[in-house]
């Protein structure tokens, strides 16, 4: 089933975690709210655009530790729901 582009009710969305595969050092992008990442980190993504993602790093117990922009190339695909 396909649908036209448009808004989706929030109640049908699910939270996805992405595993970080490549590191990112935000020191070269001080003009934006960037977030440091290292391989193995888990992140959630709230926004994709122009090769960048805005999201949160997930810490122990599912707490969001930090928020910011990072290159989409740091993540691969969502992890399967458990």
TrEMBL record:
It comes from the Eukaryota. SUPFAM superfamilies: SH3-domain. InterPro entries: SH3-like_dom_sf. This is SH3 domain-containing protein. It comes from Symbiodinium pilosum.
């Amino acid at each position: 089933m396909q649908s036209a582009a448009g808004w989706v009710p929030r109640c049908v969305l699910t939270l996805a975690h992405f595993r970080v595969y490549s590191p990112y050092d935000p020191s070269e992008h001080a003009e934006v709210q960037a977030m440091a990442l290292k391989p193995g980190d888990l992140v959630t993504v709230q926004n994709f655009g122009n090769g960048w993602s805005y999201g949160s790093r997930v810490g122990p117990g599912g707490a969001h530790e930090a928020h910011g922009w990072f290159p989409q190339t740091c993540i691969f695909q969502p992890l399967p729901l458990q």
